[in-house]
Structures are given as structure tokens and as C-alpha cells.
Amino acid sequence: MRNFKGRAAVASxxxxxxxxxxxxxxxxxxxxxxxxxxxxxxxYWKTADAGLQAAAALYGVKAEMRGPSSLNAQQEADELDAMxxxxxxxxxxxxxDPKLMQPExxxxxxAGIPVIxxxxxxxxxxxxxxxxxNNLAAGRLGGQRLVQKLDGKGNVVFFTIGxxxxxxxxxxxxxxxxxxxxxxxxxxxxxMQGDSGKAMDKASEYIGRKGAETVNAFVCxxxxxxxxxxxxxxxxxxxxxxxxxxxxxxxTLELIKDGTIDSTxxxxxxxxxxxxxxxxxxxHHYPPTQKLTSDFxxxxxxxxxxxxxxxxxxxxxxNVDAQLxxxxxxxx
Length: 332
What we know:
Elements: H1 2-26, E1 32-36, H2 43-59, E2 62-66, H3 73-84, E3 90-93, H4 98-110, E4 115-118, E5 130-132, H5 135-150, E6 154-160, H6 165-178, E7 184-191, H7 196-207, E8 217-220, H8 225-235, E9 242-246, H9 250-257, E10 263-266, H10 269-285, E11 307-309, E12 313-315, H11 320-331
Parallel strand pairs: 1-2, 1-3, 3-4, 4-5, 5-11, 6-7, 6-8, 8-9, 9-10
Antiparallel strand pairs: 10-12
């Protein structure tokens, strides 16, 4: 029996060594990937970077997130152009402005660099595919919550970022649901231009409206404004308004726990970056027979999906503790 166990142990070690050998042959420490985004100082993007680094560690490759710390689409496009010149193994892109990013994405693919979009798509570009949220479905999920909590009537304002496809799709999802409830009126869609401070100031203005112009609900279509709109409600001692946020950063979750924010629509930025890098790595090592500039969306025998849905969830008082616990565990 002892000899059998010894032989089994040796076989296990040999098998592990074989797997490691295959992995080592496939990957190189010089293999470099980039994630290009805007406003990368946000907690949302720090979570995405954690997913990026986890996938890089798994494969033994290098990965780096780059882009402006503020919402500056031109700087993001310039950053992508600079990274193309380095000829990396692949690039992930979240397009702050799809029209502005399209020529840069196409330039990368023409140079033989695989590009996958995450979080915010650039569907008119030649990107290979999109990994992220079904934003229309996310908006509809939020819209159902809005209708439920308002009991079908009230004035609503939205905080958004103009030009971003993901925010536009979320807004459409909300409006699709609202359309069946004529008692709910959208009185404003405010472009905060990526500055949550502007959202706070505008929220204070909305709070001051009275009578028929009273704003009953505030809806945030991006990650950063929830906490600042919540702060405006706190400063004005307003407790009878509905606030629905977007994403599950620590501040947003804490405000759900104390009742300032009713709920948030949670995405999976970690998963987007993790899955995105794995996709790029596979394409780099096993490139398609077709040119990277082919229209894979229209090709019935495409080796790529058009869209990988990473999912959404509603977080409210019933499950926020579990979310906070999971976030704390992930930080350790």
C-alpha cells in the first residue's frame, strides 16, 4: 500500500509539472496586455484592475491599466494610441466616447493587435467582441424598482454621462419600463460630465423644487454620483425621496445600509477585466484564420461571440450585508 501511495504521489507531481511546462511554453513574462479606460481613479476601475491583475497572475503575463484619472475622452484616445505603438499582445478598451475611440481601435486591429471592449462598447469599431453588462436589461431592472417604490407616480431625474453608450442604454431601459406608467414623469436628464460634485450641486437644486415640481426620485446611471447625491439628501435632511444608484462600491453600499440609498444596480467590473484578458490571451496564442479586421459580428462561423454578458443584480437592504461582507473578504 505504501509503495502504491508513493507511486501515486510521484505521478501527481509529474502531471502537475507537465501542466506547468505547457503553461510555461505558452506564456512569456514579457507578454504585455493593457486595459485602457477613463476616470480610472474610481473604485469601479480599481475593482476592474484587480480582475485584470488576477488573470495576469494566473497566466504569468504582464497587464497594466492606463488612462486619464478624470473623464477625458480625448486623453483616453491618446493613451490608446500610445499603447498601440508599444505593440502589446492585446488591449482591452472601455470607450468613454465610442466615436472618438473607433479609429484608434481599428488602428490597433489593423496592426495585428487584438482588441476587446469591456464596460462601454464601441460597436461601430472593428473590436472583436464586447464583455460587459447588458445595459438595457440593467436599466429595466432599475426601472422595475423605480415603479415599485414610487407606486406608479412621481417626478424623476436622472444623472448620466453624455456620449457613453452604456449610460444611454441604461436610460433607455428605464424609459422602456416607465412608458407603461404614465403617472411617472422624467423631468430632467442631467449630464454630470463625469464630475460627481456637479451631481451633488444639481441634486441640491432639485431638492429645492416644491409643489407640482417636487422631484420624488433620483436615479444615477453611473458609479460615482450615488454617494454625492446621497450626501445632498443628507445635508438637506431629506428622507422622503427615492435614490437608486449604479454599481456597488463601498460608499454606495454603506449608504444603502443606513437607508440613504434605496438600492443599486450592481455590475461585475472584476469579471469584465478578468474574462477580457483571458480572451485576449487566447486570441494572441491561437489567432483566428481570418484577419482581425474581419466583421466577426456578421460571420456565421465566427470564432468569437458578439457579446459576453457578465450579469447584473439588484442590491438593497435585504442583501447589502452579504455584499459588504464579500467586499471585505476580497480586500483581505
